[in-house]
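Structural prep section.
Before we set up the soaks we want a predicted structure of the protein with alpha-D-galactopyranose in place, mainly to decide which crystallisation condition to try first. Input record follows.
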Amino acid sequence: MAMSEVDDRRVQMVRRFNQIFEATPTRLTRAPGRVNLIGEHTDYNEGFVLPAAIDRAAWIVARLRDDRQLRVHAIHYDASAELNLDQLQPGQVHGWPAYIAGMADYLQQAGHALRGADLLIDGDVPEGAGLSSSAALEVATGATLLSLAGIELDRIGLAQAGQQTEHNYIHVNSGIMDQLISAVGKQHHALLIDCRDYSAQPIPLRPDAQLVVCNSKVSRELAGSGYNTRRAECDEAVQLLQAVLPAIKTLRDVSPEQLAQHADLLPPVILKRARHVVSENARVLASAAALRGGDLVRFGALMNEAHRSYRDDFEASVPPIEVLVSAALSVGGVYGSRLTGGGWGGCTVSLVDGGAVERFSSTVATMFEHEIGYTPDIYACVASEGVSVTPLEGGTGR
Ligand code: GLA
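Run finished without errors. Recording the tokens verbatim:
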């Protein structure tokens, strides 16, 4: 991201903070959204994912208070909330302040002595688009509160607190991918993450190819989508397979061959869900190897296979997403294209030859508008760094 953009945002947010809280902030936090290149619904099955943090983020400017209050203002909603650090409980806070409450609650439960603060929040990750605006807000909040309290940034702990927030404050039984990549992302790299032990291997993205996100603007809150049902279906598959494979703990432990061998144990729908996850894990590992070797043709073919599996076996696609994917694949210079994120709407991610991006954007926009009746948002993404907290000059010194 260009330095002037960061400076502009800092200046604007500090000015706004002065107006709202009549004080000067001491910290600026940035936590990015993400795009997942491949590996969907594998994270809560303790499998593999390959996301990249993107150049869209949640931003917070903040300062300490002398009491136990968190006073929060969200620019995006033009709304404020006030929370007490000693009275945080799931079910008591609703809407966007639940993300703030959840993070503070779980970081405190993890033993961190947080302190009261004033927080001003802004961001440019589109909401409900499958680009993890929620995880970005969670990670930004947690990092800010830890920094203000003088506690060292615990990136994995931040991600875990974010996941607990999703489960108990937002009622989405999410995995940990979104929060982890927002916490540990690396500029110009995708990360191969093992969601069993949270180890992450950076893999460089080739500068001659561009990640392009197309937003269908079909927005689905995960809490109301098929997300939780899919997670339960995966658990059911594990329970049934344990009758013959007692050592398995999650679908991560099942090979494609084992699943084929014991297919008759599973009802047809459960078999399809399991087949997506088991084959997706294999695809993530194969695609990471392809990316490492610079083989974008192979990588793109795996993206396309992943999309078919997500659509046909996991049944997580919707018609406008299908239009985006087929429009993308009709353009020369496109390696692969697929639905990214939690499913049932949101965005596609396409890997496009650097020289073909303009043609890609205009063709996809025209075809989509023709079929669906409105224009999608299309943006080229740059893989960015995970969460960072910067001290601000001229604050009140804490
Ligand atoms: C959402 C969840 C993640 C992950 C993806 C699907 O983004 O928050 O944990 O399960 O869906 O891959």
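Observations: The mean pLDDT is 96.
Flagged for discussion at group meeting.
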